[in-house]
Design a protein that fits this description.
Layout lengths: L20 H15 L16 E6 L5 H12 L3 E6 L11 H10 L4 E6 L4 H6 L5 E7 L5 H14 L7 E5 L6 H12 L3 E5 L15 E3 L2 H5 L4 E4 L15 H8 L3 H5 L5 E3 L12 H4 L6 H22 L4
Parallel strand pairs: 1-2, 1-3, 3-4, 5-6, 5-8, 6-7, 8-9
Length: about 325
Amino acid sequence: MKEKINRLRNKDLISIQDLTVKEIELILDTAKAFKEISDRAIKKVPVLRGKTIVNLYYEPSTRTRISFELAAKRLSADLVNVTAKTSSAVKGESLKDTIKTLEAMQASMVIIRHSEPGVPTLISQWVDFSIINAGDGSHAHPTQALIDMFTVREKRPVFKDLKIVIVGDILHSRVARSNIQGFTKLGAKVVLCGPPTLIPKYVEQLGVLVTYDLEEAIESADVVMLLRVQFERQKANYFPSIREYSKYFGLDIDRLNNHRDILIMHPGPVNRDVEVKSEVAESSSSLINEQVTNGIAIRMAVLYLLAQRSKKV
């Protein structure tokens, strides 16, 4: 029997790379318990009562922000939402001054999304309370990867030798990077697929396989995770047209029917009829809505476990 742990080592959650396999399993197991709360008539527990959590977003977000908000409220924490457009950042206030202001207001935890890689790591050095990375540039999105691992584990409990295929804009995807780290740590085989221009150089050094042929990629695959093309992060044209991208790398019902046992995932937002056809996104193979549901449970688990670890909570 594997020895289990009951707490995280670090006060922050910045990257999947910082977590051990046992820590990942602890978060997934804790999320399983919290997911049951969502099925209750009263979806709240008092474990973070009296604590103040700040959702600090310098980039747009729907799923992640609302998911963290619901998670905090279901744990009975006080939650404050702050966006760059409504903060003193528009007046020229530095990021450090913003974080120090939250510290002076005795925030217990800050969840931050920022367009610049490394910002969560930087601010974690300025304060004693916990920092959670809700996405930093193209670098990392650890809670989304935990959601994806949790969702796969519900359907395929044993990760060893599972074939996880990630298709799309790998180059600009923080979700892809975090998922590569997480799934490979748990023993899964990760295959990347997309146009050559959207696959990072030397990515095989992360322990993954690369192919530019979607049919080859999904052959014997257990899970196919589709990623949207992140036009907002691109500074060049990486392929001739959307139509051509969809033709070669979009998942349609015909391709899915040839591989009926594949589970379909997408971290969202979904560009329908680009990376995935609507009939695939809404098929019985799709776990897209389950990923959204599981997001609340995973983020409840992360908030709870970091609250046990944090000096300020």
